[in-house]
Amino acid sequence: MAQEASVDGRFGVVSSPTIEEAAGLLEKLLDGSSMVVVAGVCSSEYEGRGASVSTEGDKLLIVKPGGAVILHGPRGFRPLNWQPSTSHTEVATAEGLLTLKFYRRTPREVLKIACSSVWYVAWVRFPEEGAFWMYMTEDDLRRAVALHPRELLGEDIRFFAEEKRTPSGKADLYGVDGRGNIVIVEVKRVRADESAVRQLEGYVRDYPTQAKVRGILVAPDISDAARRLLESRGLEFRRVDLKKAYSLLKPGRGRSVLDFL
Q1: What is the count of structural domains for the chain?
Q2: Is the same domain home to 119 and 145?
Q3: Is 104 found in the same domain as 16?
Q4: Order of strands across the sheet with 236-239?
Q5: Is 91 exposed, middle or buried (0-12, 13-18, 19+ CB in 10 A)?
Q6: Are 8 and 29 in a shared domain?
Q7: Which domain CATH number covers 67?
Q8: Least confidently predicted of 59-68, 102-111, 155-164, 207-216
Q9: pLDDT bucket at 125, cuts 50 / 70 / 90
Q10: Looking at residues 101-119, what average pLDDT do you find?
Q11: Are residues 120 and 171 in the same domain?
Q12: Which of 61, 125, 161, 247 measures 20 to 30 Å from 40, CA to CA?
């Protein structure tokens, strides 16, 4: 017999539902407004960007508002299957199985999950989505480079402007190196691609001077295509260590709780 616990309709749990009860509940819940968690004995089939099959076993299914789907096994942190969004969902029962199909239109893919037993269905409705900040944002990284160019770029550069507006957009940092050359820096917190190179090229081209202008792209990594484009344009790349940049920004460069683990 299924047992339900809920408070004000905001969240709820139904434990030990029959296959038919689970199907009826999921038809109502999978409307994009709730985070839904299903635990049970299930198998899966996926076809789209690739193809995969998982045999029947313990599974945890998570469906988020907006249609992101994640299917976990009992071990490890990586999902067995996942889809970032869903265009259409089907719920059905046949021959003692609960079948869920999650379709995505672009790119075309489908994830099919068949459960022979459902232990519980849980859901939460979120009226508000809280804000999220990363400790090392792109703004943080730009500030770290501006304050500690020798430690992060390997040379002394005196920066005198941040996010300087140009016809091509806002360049992250403007400064002067030890030889009196103008230096323009574009900072990326993730792997730099060709678009980052073109951004930097535009800022260098926009600078109104006949003096030598150095363009430096700063990022934790760069794609091969971006590096080739960078070198062909006479621009430079500096690989930055995000962990080092974070430690340089910590107040007093003191120890964090992670140092004790």
Answers
A1: 2
A2: no
A3: yes
A4: 157-166, 169-177, 182-187, 213-219, 236-239
A5: middle
A6: yes
A7: 2.70.180.20
A8: 207-216
A9: confident
A10: 94
A11: no
A12: 125
